[in-house]
Automatic annotation (TrEMBL):
PROSITE patterns (UniProt xref): G_TR_1, G_TR_2
Keyword presence, Transmembrane: no
Protein name: Tr-type G domain-containing protein
PANTHER family associated with the record: ELONGATION FACTOR 2-RELATED (PTHR42908:SF42), TRANSLATION ELONGATION FACTOR-RELATED (PTHR42908)
Amino acid sequence: MDKKHNIGNMSVIAHVDHGKSTLTDSLVAAAGIIAQEVAGDVRMSDTRADEAERGITIKSTGISLYYEMSDESLKNYKGERAGNEYLINLIDSLGHVDFSSEVTAALRITDGALVVVDCVEGVCVQTETVLGQAMGERIRPVLTVNKMDRCFLELQVDGEEAYQTFQRVTENANVIMATYEDPLLGDVQVYPEKGTVTFSAGLHGWAFTLTNFAKMYASKFGVDESKMMERLWGENFFDPATKKWTRKNTGSATCKRGFVQFCYEPIKQTINTCMNDQKDKLWPLLQKLGVVMKSDETDLMGKALMKRVMQTWLPASSSLVEMMIYHLPSPAKAQKYRVENLYEGPLDDAYATAIRNCDPEGPIMLYVSKMIPASDKGRFFAFGRVFSGKVTTGMKVRITGPNYDPGEKKDLYVKRVQRTVIWMGKKQKPWRMYHVVTPWPWLVLTSSSPRKPL
């Protein structure tokens, strides 16, 4: 993979039980690894039997996803990336407070973080903890307000109350991010009107950013998409009777907040129509939205129908992946300001320079994040990320452990790379290319001794 600007190394972080693993399934579905219909139920990132029994993630898991973005989605993108082919290396981390060290290890080998917050429970204690860990590693965050389905199906929340809840979640997250302000990172706060906040229902596999609705309404109101996005958040109200936007609610029964009128209520109407099996109203509604259902899906009823309609209209895969591609940095950009966190030696030597430039021709610099027991006893996979250089199967590598001191041989080992594989959730797959180029993080080496590091 020689397109280092088109790689994204991401981690999913959140408080326990806020929906990280379920939401990760939607990202996996975007790469075609699992079907969109079963996203949220498979839990690809849960690799242990006791994780399913306890209902929580115990070990962080990595998975590499190939994503091809449409020309329409790329039309207004003006960032560092080029082309429509992207590689997303994703780690589903842990939310339980007892596993904080596992989260730190996962963050070290990523450049961006998808912060997941339950829209009903809001920002919790562990949300603040993992955000602090991310900021300490100079990880740029984006936010998803998850479990939106609870507002429509469980709590029956009206639009204005829902908006106030979502705004409070965003503001609380921004307060924490502002606490860990870093000049090298710049502004890390998230804003729905700038596309850095997603509203999602991981269990049902749908999500949206304000960009989705801005594209729908921009031509109707004769404004560009960025202007429409601003109107869909904050103190912006629209009255269909007068066809005017105002900064305050006029008190008229028809005057409603932009977000409520153009985002929340259309979703609520669609969900209620599906759940009540009002297909005579549903098909004309879907036609207006431009949603085309497959012939074998028209016989679905109730929640199954609602899930397929919402996945077709607002697929979580595209909204989440595109937000991360647009707003989270590539290795080529992130390593320039993260080198101080990654390397303890002089910042002007050849090794620091190679990391900073993400140089595939530089010296091999690899960080091993964790050791994973193999299926056969006595062997381990070393899971890590290459920050510079190239690694080939059979080459000798120099490993320095945590107790290594420069100039001494204590905790220093020279081993040969026996093979390289990719960690794909519950499985390890052979890496068929001869070289593992610098930004690829999931380099896996093997060791025959359980007592010694590689």
